[in-house]
Amino acid sequence: MKKDLATYWKRNISLMAVLLIIWAVVSYGCGILFVEQLNAIRLGGFPLGFWFAQQGSIYVFVALIFIYYKMMKKLDIEYDVHE
Amino acid sequence: MSILAWTYIMVGLTFSIYIGIAWISRVKTTKGFYVAGGGVSPLANGMATAADWMSAASFISMAGLISFLGYTGSIYLMGWTGGYVLLALLLAPYLRKFGKFTVPDFVGDRYYSDVARLVALVCAIFVSFTYVAGQMRGVGIVFSRFLEVPVNTGVLIGMAIVFFYASLGGMKGITYTQVAQYTVLIIAYLIPAFAISSQITGTFIPQIGFGSTIAQGQDTGKYLLETLDALNRDLGFSEYTKAFGPGSKSMLDVFCITMALMVGTAGLPHVIIRFYTVPNVRGARLSAGYALLFIAILYTTAPAVASFARYNMINTISNKEYAKAPSWMKNWEKTGLIAWVDKNGDGVIQYAAGKPFKGKPRFTGETGVHGERLLANEMLPNANELFIDRDIMVLANPEIANLPAWVIALVAAGGLAAALSTASGLLLVISSSISHDLYYRLINRQATEKQRLTLGRIMIGLAVIVAGYFGINPPGFVAQVVAFAFGLAASSFFPIIVLGIFSKRTNREGAIAGMVVGITFTFLYIVNIKFMGGKPWFLGISAEGIGTVGMILNFIVTTVVSKLTAPPPQDVQDLVESIRYPRGAGAATDH
Questions:
Q1: Are B78 and A76 within 8 A, CB to CB?
Q2: Those residues with Cβ within 8 angstroms of residue B237's Cβ, 6 or more apart along the chain or in another chain
Q3: How far apart are CA B186 and CA B182, in angstroms?
Q4: Test the B interface: residue of A32, A64, A67 with most B CBs within 10 Å
Q5: The complex's ipTM?
Q6: Interchain CB contacts (distance < 8 Å): A and B
Q7: The domain B3-28+35-313+403-579: what is its CATH number?
Q8: Which residues of B touch A19 (CB under 8 A)?
Q9: Looking at beta carbons, which residues of chain A come within 8 Å of B292?
Q10: Domain ranges in chain B?
Q11: Under an 8 A CB cutoff, do A43 and B211 touch?
């Protein structure tokens, strides 16, 4: 059963858009633009903004790629374009 | 056993492993030589990519830089990891489906133009040479401190080793040696980090330790980062965790530098080509995930190491008598990477904000009353008496923390692994750019497999010699040109590759115009600041961050010019359509 390839591509793009928004929010948002506000909150010995800039954003980056891999694996099979 | 004996054992052992692996994975075909036959597992490719990516700068210099920069050091942490998200989502799977050997291959075919191919080729070579010179220098530094041979001999030994395994095994040899090198470098990075974290904070895991309280000494019970903030304040530096304080970079600059590094990472040819080596599109996505996971292990440890190193460094030498200073300080003073000048004649080391004197230390060859090496530099009128090269923070860390000799030797082997793995990846890009993109694609399409393989090996040899020359005679501008590597990768490759995949309408005219405008703007801006003493005239953005503006310009110009000119031919549009769907990604081909 071959579904519409255009829909496959659209769904890929929207998944990417969501993940890239998260990517931007944790790094540019929490780590840079709002770092001073977030630093008022503490996470153990870390000011929160500082933690995002030097730790948190990197953990999120790793998670995002593995989520993309998993979701696309499903999507490839659903639209019968997998290898 | 002494540190020296241990170092010879560790370095000898790891080098024999690399040579053994290279011999087992030697190749006879161009496909093996350029893309390791396209059969590398995503996990192995992830490790190899991590070793390829983490250079002497990541291993040796980064934690040191962060320990002096505090919050601002985040530009490197986020900038050199965030690009992998872009790679995994926007580039790697599609370039893998496209399935050729190099980045200029994609640019040339997608934009049906040999001019575009040539521009891409020149950029790839320039970026790679910029980088490789720094690696060879890193090899030299490690050799001179730990094996007590002259820097130049160190560079020559490094050159011989890299040439041996890169020319023998090409991409295949490089890939599997990089897997071994990753293992060596990550162990060498983590062992001292674990040990120092438990010494200072009583917590084994550095990522947690650095947000914990100090477990011993006068600051017991206080949070490490709060203590560092206070120490920095007392010595006249900006607080360690404070963002955008006086003397630090502005928010806009931090934003632009982080983005230029992220986008530049995603546009670097030696990183991109690693994704041609996996068997399929799914493998490319997964492999990017593994690569970042392996990189993140070091990159989340580095800021912890940075804060431990700064705390230890200030505690062991600031306001201490030079005569009673610990031995690590004197060891590194011998290499010229630390210098002390007794400005007020009290025999005590005063450390404060600001450079103690102009330029790098120039020693007179005589020693002062306390046994320190005297300097010929012009002194600056501030209270700071201490010069510390940032590069030594990681290398000296095990000595500062009094770890056993074998740990210090392991760190030396790790630094060499980081430098050699990156150098070999870059040399392959240079070799493939010349023997594949230039010679085979543009000059002689009739070249036989054997001729091309021989040329590839000769090119690795030549590139090693040029890189070694720069390692022995480092051009004064090596540090400056790193801004070029990322700025140019961000402002040239990234936009046109992304548009080439996501917009069928983008055509040859747009891509060439975009690359030329992006590169020219970025190049002139960096040259103006770095070589002509100009001011950062565009919103105060520094040379390191201007690639972000160049990239935006490239996106705009490419899109506008493409709209105004004829769409690409049908077969190119079909090509773009086909790379969007994973099925049918065969092995990488050269036709």
A1: no
A2: B247, B353
A3: 6
A4: A32
A5: 0.96
A6: 141
A7: 1.20.1730.10
A8: 85, 89
A9: 61-62, 65
A10: 3-28+35-313+403-579
A11: yes
Which helix H or strand E contains B448, and what residues bound it?
Answer: none
Cα A83 to Cα B260: distance, rounded to the nearest angstrom: 34
Which class for A7: exposed (0-12), middle (13-18), buried (19 or more C-beta within 10 A)?
exposed
Q: Are B209 and B216 in contact (CB under 8 A)?
A: no
Nearest CA in chain A to B228: A45
pLDDT reported for residue B493: 86
Q: Which residues contact A6 (CB under 8 A, 6 or more apart)?
A: none
Give the tens place of pLDDT for each residue, A22-36.
999 999 999 999 999
Please tell me the distance in Å from A38's CA to the nearest CA on chain B.
Answer: 11
Among B113, B136, B124, residue whose Cα is nearest residue B492: B124
CA distances to B268, B484, B532, B546, B547 from B550, in Å: 16, 12, 20, 6, 5
Condensed to tens digits (0 to 9), the pLDDT of residues B18-46 reads 989 988 888 888 888 888 888 889 999 99
* Displacement of CA B71 from its chain's centroid (Å): 20
Taking the CA of residue B290 and the nearest CA in chain A, the distance in Å comes to: 8
> Around B572, how many Cα atoms within 13 Å sit in the side-chain half-sphere?
21
- Pick from A5, A8, A58: CB nearest B77: A58
